[in-house]
Design brief:
Length: 296
């Protein structure tokens, strides 16, 4: 009989939190990708947002960003942000710096094979559920491996996210996590950020009685293509929110902005900046402090 692994507390890393006792330095590729790219010049949390003039200078060599006015929020976008009574965050490469399934695959020794499938899935030519099943079948993570991965490679929280969520909660804004990743890997971070388990919409890994991998729960909407949009619509319908905002880095996050779903989509490019997503966003940020400032 399949059973669900219960979440347990594990060390959570905050790259810029001096109080954190477990700090895993970002690998070199991440430093190169984030800090070597002018798009991420604003990614260090202690820096104030750059001015429009500086930004135009920085962005001038990046053709697609030349006319990207959505780097500068419209009055309507700011008003929607301030009026929001619910904010839904994507998890991988948004709340956290890593992609959970990739981290788990690397830990289980199948990083390269899974990365190949991830690249295939990103083309949009493969249904999400097919890509998820294919990737998991490559390494079939056991309960022990998931728990050991969480212990030895704890998720790294994005700079500024803890403060932003704290500020939203102080304003009585409800915060949700919507992810194609796994509840087992998200719950410890949610606990750290003060987000209730009921506010997590994600996939559930299933294990047999001896802890072996048996699959994932296909009833979770996030296990299917378009699932994040369905989850956001469900939240809105159930809780009757007046204004709901979705924040993320991927095309599936952008999909959540539709009638009955999110009123606004904010593209967070602090980890991964995807041109196709950023172009269609209502607002593009590379630092959560930009959002915090506009809440005041
Ligand atoms: Mg993401």
């Amino acid at each position: 009989m399949a059973w669900f692994v219960s979440a347990r507390t594990c060390p959570i890393q905050s790259m810029f939190n001096p109080q954190a006792s477990f700090i895993r330095s970002p690998p070199n590729w991440h430093l190169a990708r984030v800090f070597g790219n002018p798009l991420f010049c604003n990614a260090i949390p202690s820096n104030p947002p750059i001015s429009r003039e500086v930004s135009q200078e920085v962005f001038k060599n990046i053709p697609w960003s030349l006319n990207s006015e959505n780097y500068w929020p419209s009055k309507e976008a700011i008003a929607t942000w301030r009026d929001a009574d619910a904010v839904c965050f994507d998890f991988d490469s948004t709340v956290c710096l890593d992609e959970g399934i990739d981290e788990l695959a690397v830990f289980c020794g199948a990083g390269a094979e899974v990365a190949e499938w991830t690249a295939k899935a990103m083309t949009g030519l493969v249904e999400f559920e097919e890509a998820l099943a294919a990737r998991l079948s490559l390494f079939k993570p056991s309960l022990d491996q998931v728990e050991n991965c969480l212990e030895q490679r704890p998720p790294r929280i994005s700079p500024g996210i803890s403060e932003l969520i704290g500020k939203l909660k102080a304003k009585n804004v409800d915060v949700y996590l919507i992810s194609g990743g796994f509840r087992q890997m998200i719950k410890p971070v949610a606990l750290e950020l003060g987000i209730p388990p009921d506010n997590i919409f994600a996939n559930q890994l299933l294990f047999g009685t001896s802890g072996g991998y048996v699959g994932f729960d296909p009833k979770e909407p996030t296990s299917r293509s378009g699932g994040k949009a369905v989850a956001v619509q469900h939240i809105r319908q159930k809780r009757g929110y007046k204004t709901l905002v979705m924040i993320g880095d991927g095309a599936t996050d952008l999909e959540a902005r539709q009638p009955g779903g999110a009123d606004m989509f904010i593209c967070y490019g602090g980890v991964q900046m995807r041109e196709s997503v950023a172009r269609k966003a209502d607002w593009v940020v590379s630092d959560f402090h930009e959002l915090m400032i506009q809440l005041s």
